[in-house]
Amino acid sequence: MMNSIRKLASCVILDLDGTLVNTDGIVSEILKVYLVKYKKKWDGREAQKIIGKTPIEAAAAIVEDYGLPLSKEDLLSEISPMFSDQWCKLKALPGAYRLIKHLRGHGVQMALASNSPRDSIEQKISYHPTWKESFTAIVAGDEVKAGKPSPEIFLEAAKRLSIDPSKCLVIEDSLPGVAAAKAADMEVVVVPSLPKQSHLYTEADEVINSLLDLRPEKWGLPPFEDWINGTLPLEPWHIGGPVIKGYGRGSKVLGIPTANLSVEGYATVVSEHPAGVYFGWAKLSNRGFYKMVMSIGWNPYFDNTEKTIEPWLLHKFDEDFYGEELHLVIVGYIRPEANFPSLESLIAKINEDGKIAESALDLPLYAKYKDETYFKSIALAQQNNL
Description:
Blueprint: E1 11-14, H1 23-36, H2 47-50, H3 55-66, H4 72-86, H5 96-105, E2 109-113, H6 118-126, H7 131-134, E3 137-139, H8 152-161, E4 168-172, H9 175-183, E5 187-190, E6 206-207, E7 232-242, H10 249-254, H11 267-271, E8 276-284, E9 288-298, E10 307-313, E11 325-336, H12 343-360, H13 364-367, H14 372-385
Parallel strand pairs: 1-2, 1-4, 2-3, 4-5, 5-6
Antiparallel strand pairs: 7-11, 8-9, 8-11, 9-10
């Protein structure tokens, strides 16, 4: 999928919805509530038809698919105020702040190019300190004749940056966005909004799992300097619950004793993190602290709409610990979820993940979180936010 010869970029043009902020989550929540009025049930799969579209195109798709007794214009004017009230809850996607801070710190020019109208963009980014002043230019859907997949929005962004379109790197999440970038003769890296859909993005120059996996140096831009011994430090987060009967898939298939943790109540927390391999500290209520590596993946049983976690405590236990409270503090990231050609290569990779976590957790940067008081305080803070 990678082009062997890449054009080097001198600026970055970013999409907003689904690339920097988790708009899709809020859109789904609002439509779920709104459609009840017409005795209709929002189907998450519909998201595919509206991601990356202009607001009026998205409204048209919903009116048509659900057979609603109103025009697309009426639907838009009814739901727009509902959206405006919710933009304050819009969360930055993992790696968004890191990317913007990195590019800005290295003097790389950035533009924001979105199909959303100008006032909606301004409102969304106002909740994210430093973002607005980081962009040299912002181009909105209502400032051009045609939104994406037309290249106009990206060409206008390049013009406002005074940079040749072929020297722009675009970061997108949607098919219309990728089509627009290629039509503008730009290189494009895509972070698909929808799980398990990367096969649809054949036009993109690279498909990555999340912004955490972007390697700017591939495009001639300054590399990130925050990776340490194969790990990326994260703002720590916590998850906890009883260990439930039955090992995770890992034990049966891979011979790696992963714990099955009931994550009831933490679904939202887990959903905010990209599928991949993480590590941190585990605390078993009656036994103390252990080093831990963990995978977050899409659960095929739930049609890839729900994520599961499998923690592997890096310790040989003589007996099971079903029913015990297991608390995890995740402190760093190792790699994205990947497909392996064979079971052997998967097992080898998981063991390599274990070794990386094992040695990284001895670094003071990560070792400091192995602390009773810290575990209690992060668990409490997170509960209050749920």
